[in-house]
Amino acid sequence: MSTSEYLDVFIDESQEHLQSLNDNLLLLENEPGNLAIVGEIFRSAHTLKGMAATMGYEDLAHLTHCMENVLDLIRNQKLEASTAVLDVVFAAVDDLEAMVNDIASGGTGKRDVSNVTELLDQIEKGGAPSQVAATVEMTDTVEFEEGTVTAAFDVSYDQFELTVLTQSQEQGYQSYQVKISLDERTMLKAARVFMVFEVLEQVGEIIKSNPSAEELEEEKFDLEFVVTFISKIDADEIIKRVNKVSEITDVQVHPLNLEELKKASSEKEAGEVKAEAEVVDKQEVVQQTQETTTEDKTKKNGKKSGSDGNKTIRVNIERLDVLMNLFEELVIDRGRLEQIASDLKNNELNETVERMSRISGDLQEIILNMRMMPVDQVFNRFPRMVRSLSKDLNKRVNLQIVGAETELDRTIIDEIGDPLVHLIRNSIDHGIETPEKRRELGKPEEGTVVLKAYHSGNNVFIEIEDDGAGINRDKVLNKALTNGVVTEEEASKMTDQQIYGLLFRAGFSTADKVTDVSGRGVGLDVVRSTFESLGGVVTVDSTLGKGSVFSIQLPLTLSIIDVMLIEVSDEKYAIPLTSIVETAIVNKQEVYSAHNQKVIDFRGKVVPLVFLKDIFEIPVEQEEDEEFYSLVIIHKGDKIAGLVVDSLIGQHDIVLKSLGNYLTNVFAISGATILGNGQVALIVDTNALIK
Predict the structure, then answer these.
(1) What H or E segment, with its residue span, contains residue 92?
(2) Has 426 been annotated as catalytic?
(3) Is 336 exposed, middle or buried (0-12, 13-18, 19+ CB in 10 A)?
(4) What is the pLDDT of residues 417-434, one digit of tens each?
(5) 398: pLDDT confidence band, cut at 50, 70 and 90?
(6) Helix (H, G, I), strand (E, B), or coil: what is residue 154?
(7) Among 24, 69, 426, 687, which one carries the catalytic annotation?
(8) Which of 329-338, 459-468, 674-683 has the highest mean pLDDT?
(9) pTM of the predicted structure, to 2 decimals
(10) Average pLDDT for the chain
(11) Which residue among 46, 65, 254, 652 is the active-site one?
(12) Among 104, 248, 522, 643, which residue's beta carbon has the most beta carbons within 10 A?
């Protein structure tokens, strides 16, 4: 085996420790005297250093070591955790992140970090350097009486192993038993075992392991294992080396007395010969006893596993994607079976299909939940970004995060990070005023940005709220009129929210000057189009002088969605339920024209009608002179429209499939699905139908 086999584990865990460093350093900046936070930071840095050293990334280990020295001074209250000191530590973390990202992309992790290490060294020397050297490395020691231990742990040795140990002793090697205990939260125990073996084999040779190497590799052990090891180094040095591996909670080292071991082995052999006949006579009894014991152990272990709390494993996301694709095919076939059972009207078949539908429904919920991830995966990058941005803009900003545990489909999580970054930057750059300006306005010098996520029905809402200057309605409207975005007539009928929505038009900006923060070529139109491509809707509301709220509505998942199936002529279409307000039937006499557009007065609102047969140019053999229109009322933010259809079929779970590479820009169509009868139904992109 080589370290490359555990590269993915190293990268994942390094990124987790780096995120922990960022989070806790931000907490420490607010509570510089909280030694518990310092301890957490030190632990993450120390673990990262050990992992890097074990994997052979010396530059990474060296930088972490320098950072650890400074943290140790803070931990021992010999250095104050001032903003100036933490700025340097943050810079070190930035370099560490760059090195880990380089390793993740196939690089060597090498980087010129001399500037940061020099700063860290200066901070260390300005503190108490004499105290640092003594506390950087692990100083665990073990006490034992030389020559009195036969075998501290229950490990037996055969004649060949005893011979190897004896010959090694004659060549000047000391024989040890090393017992290693892993942290109960360790998820990849085999990786930890390999790292321990790697460390030990640099300074000696492993003669035996208990459990065996095969069992250790297959993780057929609890949290402890014993290694019989020969080396010329002492016990203290063994402990120091093993403790460099992360997630090790305890290391015990005991020397072996080989003479006593040989004597014990001889006595054991004699006892085994004497007992052999008895074992043969009692074989059946022993077998029954073993079966009973195994059953008891199984029951006990079952209870134990139930009380141990949640257990987690790492699964490659590609496997979940494959699982999801297979299940999508199952959903399609389930619909087909339901259709066939309905046509045949066979009771037994109907019962079986209903039972299969219930089971597959439960399976669907489990698979969708497996793909869910907390939005914390995205949100956790923002506190650090806000800190840096505040310093760049000479503003004081407090970021509050609410509902970070709210879960979203992994596909959506992957896409929302960049647009959220832009919205937060926009709130700080354009929204939050400078401390001086806020003082003049009677506001606290420190502005507040609240990032909130919460569930509502089958949607997740993400809101970014600031207590800054708000949006100047008149300024936005004048700019829109000047640029020809809207006409005077349109402007006179627009609500405040519709005017604020003009900010999402391409190339539209009200900034008096382009800053290094906002002038990066990414407008709010890109933010809106990204969210809408995910089936989301973005709205904004604001009060001048008090602040603004950007609200994003997103579906929980994109793969399997609830739709209303409708029919226009002989063609079937699917409309996502998340876009539907309600369905209605209206008399044609209630329809009237306004500005060359057919509209109705629906619940006190003027609702424009959209005829799908015209939008999709559906051939109609004969116009039926019916008295009523069947409508599906849809919405996009605060705007609504009525889709005119021939009939409503009903609600269904469908699998969303793309139209392929050749049909990427079909107007008002977001994908397709296969119905139970094998017919293809197109999925309507309702956002494209509402202007």
Answers:
(1) helix 83-104
(2) yes
(3) middle
(4) 888 988 999 899 889 999
(5) very high
(6) coil
(7) 426
(8) 459-468
(9) 0.55
(10) 80
(11) 46
(12) 643
